[in-house]
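Case study B.
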Amino acid sequence: MENQTQLLKVKNVKKHFPVKGGVFQRPKSFVKAVNGVDLTVFEGETLGIVGESGCGKSTLGRLVIGLEKLTEGMIDFGGESIGGLPDRQLKKYKKNLQMIFQDPFASLNPRQKIGDALEEVFIIHSKLNKSECKTKVKSLLKEVGLKEEHYDRYPHEFSGGQRQRVGIARALALNPSLIVCDEAVSALDVSVQAQIIKLLKSLQAKYNLTYLFISHDLGVVRHMSDRVLVMYLGAQVELGHSNQIYNNPLHPYTRALLSAIPRPNPKHKRERIKLEGDLPSASDYPTGCPFHTRCPIAQDHCAQVVPEWREIEENHFVACHEV
Amino acid sequence: MSTVAETENNNVEKKNNSRLAEIAKSLVKNKLSVFGLVIIALILLTAIFTPLITDYGPYEQNLENTKLGIGSEGHMLGTDNYGRDVWSRIAHGAGISLLVGLSSVGFGLIGGIILGLLAGYYRKLDGIVMRIVDLLFAFPGILLAMLVIAMLGTSLVNVVIAISIWSIPGCARIVRGSVLSIKRQEYILAMKTVGASDWRILFKHILPNCTAPLIVYGTMRMATAILSTSALSYLGLGAQPPTAEWGAMIAAGQDFMWEAPHLAVIPGIAIMLTVFSFNVVGDGVRDALDPNMDLNN
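Model:
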């Protein structure tokens, strides 16, 4: 791991959304969507990010590609700080940072032919003429497993899987080094999921892409990822190699999460860890360890002291007092 | 890979009908809107070919043949108190009404679209723009138009300006609402991630996706605009005599209500037919764009 180049460095990143109220729309409180994440992503790897809905995994992805502005912290990309840059300066980095969206039905403009949609990416970033753009788009279509004649079709003429391929083509168009896949396969049915995952993997091998693979589907993340980050309520709770996380989960939240994966063999009984209570509101953030309100092994000090981010075994980090 | 795409392709129902064709189809099913469309087409043809279908100029006086009744020889709709041919004046008035209606709705839409896009897309502008719009809404429309004309003077151009201003707030609200829902769509976020400018996103991606409610608004607005133009002219605030404007013609004809009722009634019927047609077509378009219909297809 150490001999690999660091591509993306996220340092103590926070994103707090104001909740406005009153006559003058002053911020009354803040929703702490992402609350202090430190992360290094290496070139060519896939980092899976898992957690239940509302844990801030999508917000983290959007912060990385600059769709949301940081409240606090630093984002370094390829050795340069890009967090908090104004849009104009961010444009040259945007070529390298792309995103594949969740809903293939909502991520394409229904009024635009897909050929035009893909061409637009080149029009924004390069000075290619119309026919050069068209050639590029057609080779791009083939790259993602579509055909040249799909150029003149509208999004509604495609299936979900095909649309997602168009989304991948759009993300791929500018030769990015990092692609954030925000629930990229969650909206697809299982057989199509497998095809898209295969496509993502083959593209990664071909172009040395780095993926931030955000998903709530633990099985898919395990299949895709080299390393996995587990998030809970805007905070990182555990990070490690995919094998370490899935075979030897340390944090009580990770254990509970993994015990919820359905097993193919119904006779294979195992302990199901059930969490008590609801996910606390991100606008009323718990003190100390964010997980202490539901943690089965919480002690008194968990409610007061924020747990340190510790390396338990090689490259396996966890934020828990009791591990 | 191509085989994969092929199998997926088979799952997609072939939908060759464009959306526009589908709207047209359901519009045609509505008998009343078809009637409206035919009337509008006739009025439009009359306006375009006025010199070809009339034998007299709209201002051509013939004091020997005043106040001829309907069906008189050479004057199918009779003549007025100056012996002017009523049919020529009605046909001429069709052009004026359509022109005033189209231009005032057009300018109103342009103003409303710009304000609506700004208010919907930039949260900081939302408050101030929408308060201005609320202010305009607070006045009854015809009063607002009279206020503008009182400031600018009576003329048909000022009527256009007045009705344009009056059309802006409604359009701005419609556009703002659409922008608010569209700008959260993933395809807009996707355009942001590839580095598209706000300008490109607003006019290339958001505006084309809020045309449906604008078409309905525009059609309905045409009816109001034409009616208001006539109303203002009738009150002496718009077109001035001897202009062959329908409202002004009613005002001039009402003095002869007993001896020659057709002088007031015929322009009245013309206004009514036009306004009615635009309204039923507007209704039809709205029904055709009903949310029950799958808008994405």
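Chain A touches chain B through 46 residues (CB under 8 Å). The remaining cases will be described in the next quarterly update.
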